[in-house]
DNA sequence: GTCTATAAGCCGATAGAC
DNA sequence: GTCTATCGGCTTATAGAC
């Protein structure tokens, strides 16, 4: 099927997503205008509305795409039967996956308050689904006697906050490689649940 | 000295600060207008400019006031000579101080990208000064043989991320009191540095 | 110190030509 | 699918009356 001159849908759609993601991460959703996104893509502002009904949907789609991909990638990982090995796999996966997508992670945490109530509820459900996977590992380890955890739900939140914190300081050009950073954080995570 | 009718400087100034803090925390700096702040205070928008030269200064002043107060409060705490006790005091202080000021904490972490470069540098200096106090405790404990820490600077970032994470889920009306939450997090912090 | 009025410009979103 | 032009409304900040 011949394509009309000026028809670039297959190219424009991902470019809009990438431009929006980078600009939202750098300046914040509310501070970025549809005109800025269009300029970054190299189209006029009206053209954006062929791909998204409004600005809010652009944000919501970025967040849900990120969380869907996170859940799918985590589900695709090996889940060792041994709780200690399962926790190590989770910790290393979490650090690696998040460190490689700082913009998407930043938006998913920082722009929650700019979602409409319905969209917020949907995103929160996805986030909880991810947290529940860590909670399940901790509970299994607790039941098996491998871990000693006073408050499993708090430990879940503490571990995720600690691991995600890597993104606030890690730089590829730094002293430590991501692999070495994984080692350090896994050691801290292991101590947290055994001690 | 008699006061002119309509002169409410001593009352208006803190009310502007409080309104800005609450609105910035709830909706984000970029999403809040000077008109919204004025409406919350109960004055017209022009009156705000008797107290702040512009919106940016309002944000900057909130952040520096928060960090200055944090540093002063931390400095006023007892600093036990024993590293383990010093770390416990720091962890408990950090949780309590941050949990009691969720709006100020939220703004200080989330609105960094909305600061001008000069203001950002100033705020980062204050934040590093606070982090350095935890690093000093960890180093002293390491030197005294009380702690076993592979990467002291990473441990600093990990502990602060973990402790500040309390604010993402803690509610006064929840199952656990703040004091009990302190106990749980201190236990995890202790494990982190000893293991 | 607060008010009203205004300047100058950007916002999200839409209509209609091509 | 992209463009230009536009609508109605909002923005920060200032000027000048009281």
Automatic annotation (TrEMBL), chains A, B:
One Pfam match: TetR_N
Record protein name field: TetR family transcriptional regulator
GO molecular function, one term: transcription cis-regulatory region binding
Domain HTH tetR-type: 10-70
Keyword terms, alphabetized: DNA-binding
DNA-binding residues (ranges): 33-52
Highest taxon, organism lineage: Bacteria
DNA-binding found in the keyword field: yes
PANTHER family, A to Z: HTH-TYPE TRANSCRIPTIONAL REGULATOR RUTR, TRANSCRIPTIONAL REPRESSOR MCE3R
């Amino acid at each position: 099927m011949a394509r009309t001159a000026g028809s670039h849908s297959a190219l424009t759609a991902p470019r809009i997503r990438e431009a929006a993601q980078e600009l939202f991460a750098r300046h914040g959703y509310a501070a970025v205008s549809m005109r800025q996104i269009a300029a970054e893509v190299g189209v006029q502002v009206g053209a954006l509305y062929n791909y998204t009904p409004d600005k809010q949907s652009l944000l919501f789609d970025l967040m849900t795409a990120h969380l869907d991909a996170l859940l799918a990638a985590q589900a695709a990982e090996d889940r060792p039967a041994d709780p200690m090995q399962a926790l190590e796999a989770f910790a290393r996966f979490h650090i690696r996956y998040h460190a490689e997508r700082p913009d998407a992670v930043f938006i998913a945490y920082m722009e929650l308050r700019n979602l409409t109530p319905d969209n917020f509820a949907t995103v929160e459900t996805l986030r909880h689904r991810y947290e529940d996977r860590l909670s399940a590992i901790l509970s299994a380890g607790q039941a098996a006697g491998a871990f000693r955890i006073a408050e499993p739900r708090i430990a879940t939140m503490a571990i995720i906050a600690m691991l995600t914190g890597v993104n606030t300081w890690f730089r590829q050009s730094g002293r430590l490689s991501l692999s070495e950073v994984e080692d350090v954080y896994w050691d801290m995570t292991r101590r947290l649940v055994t001690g």
